[in-house]
Design a protein that fits this description.
This protein is of the alpha+beta class. It has helices at about 15-20, 40, 45-50, 60-75, 100-105, 125-130, 195-200, and strands spanning about 35, 55-60, 75-80, 85, 90-95, 110-115, 150-155, 160-165, 170-175, 180-185. It folds into two domains: about 15-75, no CATH class; about 75-200, no CATH class. It contains seven helices and ten strands. Strand 9 (about 170-175) and strand 10 form a beta hairpin.
């Protein structure tokens, strides 16, 4: 949105957009038509783009799309049991999900990344034996690298559990135990906290 009244959907991010956006550092300009010139940022990347017949620039709109995709992949999370996987492999919202108990809601292992699993495929058969294939088909937050990249807090006397990402500062996830209420929102600069390993 340019006026905070009229909104339009962003196009899906491409692999090329993601690769280009990862090379950009610093804050956003606030102008979707602003162009970042790779010749000034990374001359080698600009040369490759120029050889491929492409302009060595990326618009801020494309960088925004790629950054939103990166944040969603890295820190888009759901509580355990909110979604189920059928024996045929399709994933659906669990209509019987009534929320996590307060004890479970305080554990990082009760939350999953809502993306294609990566760490799950690397687990041994012994580790997979204790998992329920209908609910434990995603990667758990407890194995995120670096360890300690999530902050778990209780608000309103334990009525709300809040998770905050220390890798993408500004990402806040909430869950009201024993209810279906959960969600996340990001209010940040769009910059990954690369200093996190040194801060822990």
């Amino acid at each position: 949105s340019l006026n905070c009244l009229d909104w339009s959907l962003l196009t899906p991010a491409t692999k090329e957009m993601l690769a280009q956006a990862e090379q950009l550092k610093g804050r956003f300009q606030g102008d979707p038509s602003f162009e970042y010139n790779f010749a000034e940022i990374n001359p080698q990347a600009a040369e490759k783009l120029f050889e491929g017949g492409k302009e060595p620039v990326i618009k801020e709109e494309a960088r925004l799309i790629a950054t939103i995709e990166q944040i969603d992949r890295a820190v888009g999370i759901v509580p355990r049991g909110a979604f189920v996987k059928t024996p045929l492999g399709s994933v659906h919202e669990n209509r019987h999900f009534e929320g996590l108990s307060l004890v479970e809601a305080k554990k990082l292992s009760s939350y999953f990344h809502f993306t294609e699993p990566v760490n799950l495929k690397n687990k041994t058969l012994l580790e997979k034996a204790n998992l329920d294939p209908s609910t434990d088909f995603l990667d758990s937050l407890e194995h995120d690298i670096p360890q300690g990249s999530w902050s778990v807090q209780l608000e309103k006397g334990g009525a709300v559990v809040v998770l905050r990402s220390l890798l993408w500062l500004g990402l806040t996830f909430y869950h009201v135990p024993l209810t279906k209420q959960y969600g996340y929102i990001y209010f940040g600069t769009g910059e990954k906290n690369m200093d996190l390993p040194f801060m822990l």
